[in-house]
Amino acid sequence: MAQPLSMAARSGRDNQRYGPLGERLVAGVVALSSDKTKVLVIQSTRRGGWVLPKGGWETDEGTAQEAACREAWEEAGIVCTVQRDLGKISETRPPAQLTPQAPKASYQFYEVKVDRQEAQWPEMNKRGRQWMSYQQALQALATRPELKEALNRSSIVR
């Protein structure tokens, strides 16, 4: 039997995993509709605009897949199953945009199937969510090349 889902979102970076070059290891999902014509995006809490569900891979999580699915639950309110590994995506921000709060990162994305979309989730009071077509998502993610790359690696209908 599956563990009950926590309504508490993790915060802070005390348990954050880092790569060999000091980069933050981030896991995320490209959640597609069953017909693969839409992708689920969420509102960013820091910059406004839209992003894909993603966040830090923590030391108590055995795999990046586990971290990605936890982030999908906390940020987007979905329970999901990984369908495909979309690979690693390197940081694309110029050094001037890197800060202690937003350090260099290495992204690992997974295409997922949404098993359930819940009405209540841990970050529901901080983030909206919306299903978008490929073209809508490309525009919404325009300032985030690493997220557009993850979308482009998915099997969404273009």
Helix vs. strand class: alpha+beta
What is the tally of helical segments? 3
Average pLDDT reading: 91
- What is the assembly state of the chains in this entry? single chain
Beta strands, count: 7
**Approximately how much beta-strand content do the residues carry?**
25-35%
Quote the distance from N terminus to C terminus.
37 Å
- Which percent bin holds the helix content? 10-25%
Rounded to an integer, what's the Rg over CA atoms?
15 Å
Q: How are the strands of the biggest sheet laid out side by side?
A: 4-1-6-5
| Unreliable stretches covering 5 or more consecutive residues | none
Order of helices and strands: EEEEHEEEHH
Largest sheet: 4 strands, mixed
Describe the structure in brief.
This protein is of the alpha+beta class. It contains three helices and seven strands.
